[in-house]
Amino acid sequence: MPARERDGNHEPPLVSVVVPVFNEQEGLAELQRRIDEALGGIDGGHEVVYVDDGSVDGSAALLEVVARERDDVVLVRLSRNFGMEIAMSAGMDHTRGDFVALLHADLQDPPELIVEMLVRAQNGADVVYARRIGRDESLLKRTLATSFYRVMERIARTPYQGQAGDFRLMSRRVVDALRTMPERRRFLRGMVAWVGYEQVPIEYRRAGRHAGRGASYPALIRLAMEAITSFSDVPLRLASYLGVTLSLCSALLAAAVLLLTATGVVVASIEAWILIAVLFLGGAQLVSVGIIGRYLARVHDQALARPLYLVDRVVGSPARHAAPAVPLAAAVEPRS
Q1: How does the average pLDDT of the chain come out, rounded?
Q2: CA 100, CA 171: separation in Å to the nearest integer?
Q3: Nearest to residue 70, comparing CAs of 151, 10, 135, 159?
Q4: For 71-107, what is each residue's pLDDT tens digit?
Q5: Is-contact 51 21, C-beta < 8 A?
Q6: Which CATH number fits the domain 5-216+307-328, given the four candidates 3.60.70.12, 3.90.550.10, 3.30.1490.20, 2.40.30.20?
């Protein structure tokens, strides 16, 4: 759907759809077809911003052809694989719509739902997030996902949104607010929840992948750890509690051994006392240092102050360029 003209350039569309892509060649044609069918008739128009996150299949080449042929499709090709969260952030930097939707390329989240999200957003909601009420996925993945969301519900300092993934639609002021956040290790769904404003859910059942393979379990576990360390200090408190508990246990055990030695029940050598002290106190220190190390690694990443991502090239409208991640007035101005 061609974009409308304004001031010699392309007028911003009503909705921008950001799609991070990593080796999704098999499903891209079907994804674009469904987006066109869902959004082709909306007043104000739409655009699709694909972000190729270092794909090694034919995804980038396929999207480049589409972006050169259509005015409503843009390809942002990153210099290498930076990860899903960074790719979505890069996509938001290249959007121009009044509303921005985040959508994965695997078709587990239905593009058709964006229309209903848009209706709710136009009625006043700043964020419309899709909450899963069912999954066509393996038992192990469902169990791990449910466990993660329950943990986040108990420990996160941000509002809990249930089993809501990245699939959501946001107003421009929410997107601008996200672009002011300097985090290098990002967990976008938590960052969106932190922003606040009016956020409403829309429920759906998540489908299985259309094609290809999803994120590996190690990658999902790393994302979960980033989420926990980004939005909770509970691990640090647990380390303190564990250290106190082990120290108390060590003292009680030492008292018990001392009592048994005094009554002649056992004969404790100096080696036994050293072993007790090393096992308990050493264990507490290792656990505490490991947890603190994860937080220090985040501080180290921030201190390096490297760019969030690097763009190889942008294929699409000649008026487009990488938007700087600097504070924007729209991020703090109240809605009229």
Answers
A1: 75
A2: 6
A3: 10
A4: 889 999 998 888 888 899 899 999 988 999 999 988 8
A5: yes
A6: 3.90.550.10
| Predicted model pTM | 0.65
Return the H-helix or E-strand segment holding 195: helix 188-195
127-135 and 199-206 strand pairing:
parallel
Q: Where are the domains of the chain?
A: 5-216+307-328, 234-304
Cα→Cα distances 10→16, 35, 47, Å: 13, 20, 11
DSSP-derived secondary structure for 101-133 = EE--TTSSS-TTHHHHHHHHHHTT-SEEEEEEE
C-alpha 184/C-alpha 276 separation (Å) is 42
Say if residues 54 and 80 touch (Cβ distance below 8 Å).
yes
User: Could you give phi then psi for residue 160, rounded to 5 degrees?
Assistant: -85, 135
What is the distance between the alpha carbons of residues 336 and 332, in angstroms, rounded to a whole number? 12
Tokens 């002021």 -> residue: 173
What is the phi-psi region of residue 197: left when phi exceeds 0, alpha when psi lies from -120 to 50, beta otherwise? Answer: left
